[in-house]
Amino acid sequence: MGRKHDTGLPWVDRSVDVDGVPVHYLEAGRGETLLLVHGGLVWCSAELTYGAVIPLLARTFRVVAVDVVGFGLTPGREPDDFSARAQGRFLVRFLETIGGPAHIAGNSHGGWLVQYLAHEVPHLISRMIIINSLNGTSPIPDDYPLPRDVEALPSNEGVRRDLLAFYVHKELVTEQRVRRTYDLTVRNYAFARARRTYLGETPAQWNRNLLYRGQHIAAYAGELRCPVLLTWSRENTGASPADATAFLNRLRDGDLHVFTNAGHHVMTEHPERWSALVGDFLLSPR
C-alpha cells in the first residue's frame, strides 16, 4: 500500500515507489479496482482529468487514478520515460505494485496505454474503457495538427484561453482550475519539451511512437480478451465517432456511447451520466 497523504478532498493522495520513482496517485472507495489513466498534454494529471468522477465512481469501486510517469506529481526520467512503450511498461509495474486484477480506463493517449496493459498482462485486466482516443484507435493522419501545448511556457491568461477552447461547458474554467493547470504546466514543462523533441514534429514521427509489435496498437484490437466500452464526444477534436465505430468493429466484445455537447474530457463535462454509464458497463453480466 502506498504512503497516505490526507488533503481534505474526496480521495486520498498516495505515493508508492516503482523502480525507484515515487508514483503519485489518488485513491477512493472500496470494491473492484478501477485504474484511471490520463492523456498526454503537459498539464494532464489524475486530478485534472478525473477529479469530477472519482467520488462518483468510488461509491461502487476502488478507484485508483495515477499520474503517469513525467506527469502530474510523478517525476519523469529523461530519456527513459519518453516513449509510449516505456510508459506502458511502467504502468504494468504500477498495477503489479498496487494489486490487480483491475478494470482500466484511458483518455486520449491513455487509450493507447490501457491497450498496452491489456495485451501485456491480460490476466490482470477485467474490462476496459477508452475515452476520446486518437492515439489508441488509429494512426495519426498526416494532416492532423499536433498539440501545441509546449511551444512556449504559457501565462496564467494563456492557460485560461486554452481551457476555454478545450471545454464546451465554459463554467468549468474556474480560477482554481486555471491555477492548477498552470502550476502543473510549469512543473512538468521541461520534461514535456524534452519528450516532444524525442517524439518529433510530424504525425509520421509520432506514429512510430505508437507502434506495438511492428504496427499501430489498434491493429491488434481483435486480440483484446476483455470487454471494451468506448465513450466518445460528438464534438471531440481528434478521433471522431466514425473513427471510434471503425475501432469498435474490430473488437470481439465492445460497446460505443457517443455524448453530445462535450469536448475531449467528456467525463468532466458530463460526470454523472458518464459515471453511471461506466458503472453499468463494469457491473453488467457479459
Describe what you observe in this structure.
- There is one protein chain.
- This protein is α/β, with parallel strands linked by helices.
- The chain has one domain: Alpha/Beta hydrolase fold, catalytic domain (Rossmann fold, 3-Layer(aba) Sandwich), CATH 3.40.50.
- It has ten helices and eleven strands.
- The strands form two sheets. A nine-stranded mixed beta sheet has the order 1-2-3-5-4-6-7-10-11, with helices on both faces.
- Helix 3 packs across helix 4 and helix 5 packs across helix 6.
- It is globular and about 50 Å long.
- The mean pLDDT is about 95.
How would you sum up this structure in a few lines?
The chain is built from ten helices and eleven strands.
